[in-house]
Amino acid sequence: MQLTPDEKKMLRGGKGAAIKEALELQIEVGKFFGAKRLVPVSNVHMMGDIEVMGDSGKAFLARMSEAGAQCTVPTTTNARCIDFDYVAKLRQNPDEAAKERELIGYLRKMDVITADTCINYQTLYQPHQGERVAWGDTGTVIYANSVFGARSNFEAGPAALAAGITGRVAEYGFQLDAHRKGTLLVNVKADLEDFADWGALGKLVGEAHQDYFAVPVFNGIKRPPTADQLKHLGASLASYGSMGMFHMLGVTPEAPTLKAAFGGNKPVSTTTITNRDIARVYAGYDPKNNPLNLVVFSGPQQSLFEMKNLARLLAGKKIKPGSHLFVTTSNGVKSAARALGYLEAIEAAGAIVLEGVCFYILQNIGQIRVQNGWSNLVTNSAKLANIIGAHKFNTILRRTDDCVRIALTGEDR
Amino acid sequence: MISARGKAPLIRVRRAYGQIVEGEALVSREGFSPRYDLDRWTGLISRPGHALEGHNLKDKVLITPSAKGGIAAGWAFYDIKHKGIAPKAFVFGVTNPVMVQGAVFAGITITEGWSRDPYAWIHTGDIVRVDPLKKTLQLIESRR
To answer: How large is the ipTM?
Structure first.
């Protein structure tokens, strides 16, 4: 790999041990993928909480912060596993909560902005076309690449922190033009109204083509999608398909025409998705005769617009006794929702609104499930329906209105 | 126990990182996620229904067609390495950057891509050698 004089100095340890270690990690990863050089990034988003990193990861952060590591570009954090106001109520482990506080201290010492949101692309930073960033989680990456035309690979926590410290990433994957061209054609004939419909589309395309370097091109979208709809599509594609980029003809910046979207590639497959296909996704979930007593709006965190809609649907109503409704969002969105009265409407219905977390990474979620006797989890997020199965929830994807109705009545029509 | 050295074909891998390792193969036709398929306290593949359910990853050479899971997997390899339950190597058909970043961070050998189908030659329990420098995967001893 070709290094600049500045990078060579970093590698020799001339800028400190922490920078050296961070750069060494990046160079090894870059060599694996055949990167020829490092390129500067302007923004970093990293995942780092006690549930994902454990004690060894916390010890690593302690060592890096003690070694004087400092982020050289703005670096924000993804959703974490604890909302400190709800540790007792959720019966989370207080020792783990203490570790989370300690870990946040190390991050702040390294000048990491602990914003704790997985919708940074809606609330914190919107890179321009061609801008290089180093983001994780996967939903943020696919949004950056596809909707903004910015450039990022999936950057795991340690890799993103390394990028924050060095201000660079190795140039491979979606940093390169070659990997940003479409590989699959998806003709969309479905109407795609609710967020869950968009997530179902992502599930159908992602499950069928599980490959980081597969880039679907969506053609025939009937109405220009909103940011929240694209958010649910992207999160779902990344979750089911491990995908990091898509194009949408006439919508996303690198797809003004099919020719531009494919950039000379011949689609390896052509799929058509109809309303019937989407209906089949919903029909594929089975509550297995267990109660529908848990509804979750999370994964990704809710935007202010989603909060407003939930407030409208829940205003003046009460969740069925014995049922639970959880909403997760960022601190910024929750604060705005409070000021606007949305939060009051949602909480008055009996919902719990958590900030700075995502439901599926909540510390102790497996135990929380057992303690509450939950089996089914109803959600409008296809991503959440996919990944929380690991904690032995039986998931059911439903449209937003249906989710709210299930929370109020316990009944799925 | 039959020595297979020199008989089974050498499988070339496309990309590789890490030390040369020799160990017992754990072969799956199903993809792998260190977050969702693995008990990160015991090293057991724990997800009900996974092709390798009940097998322990510790000190094995995991051969799997694909990577599953998101960004959180990046910390998981470091975690299992420090708990002493890491495999000796990950041999992926296709992978994503998170797995590579995680393996490099943890110092675990990782490869991607294979020149021929390993499933025809290598089975769980066989002894294999992974050489990242030569980019090869080799059956050392068949234990079928």
So the answer is: 0.94
